[in-house]
Amino acid sequence: HFVPHLGDVVVVATSALEGQGVENVLPVVERVFEKWNMRVQTSVLNQWLTEVQAAKSPPIVNGRRTKLKFAVQPKARPPTFRIFANASEKDIPEHYIRYLRNEMRASFGLEGMAIRISISNTADDNPFAGRRKRGGSRRRM
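Below the sequence we write its predicted structure tokens.
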């Protein structure tokens, strides 16, 4: 049976009465555990981000083209990725985030994994935003 809300979950058919398929459970669990702990290098992730954007450009938000600048994986369990852009997460349509998630599954072999993606606006993360410029004490000649 297909269960849409479970997405790409790995299913292992077993029978407790017949004892069939039980030998297939542990190898699948080991494979899923290995994927669950997988880390993607930042350079590989950023190359992937460039390729994904070339295949399908991000949507235009508030009349401006969205630029996905770079990505990192701050956490492995569950696979969590943070993408820095010139727009916030609420501005990027859910269908594009779903596209990124599905491409990530296909590219990095994360089928059956719950992948978390967060989008951060680089302007919001600037620690110097809102500070006044100080007048320099340099003398001009």
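The chain has a mean pLDDT of 86.
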